[in-house]
Amino acid sequence: VPAEAVSEEAGKRYLGFAHGTAGIGCFLLAAATVADRRDYTELAVEAGEHLVAHAVLVGEAAQWPAQATDPPTAPYWCHGSAGIGTFLVRLWRATGDDRFGDLARRATHAVVERASRAALTQCHGLAGNGDFLLDMAEATGETSYRTMAEHLARLVVAERAHRAGHVVFPNEYGDVSTSWSDGSAGILAFLLRIRHTEPRRWMI
Question: Which terminus of the chain has a lower count of CB atoms within 10 Å, N or C?
Answer without folding.
Answer: C
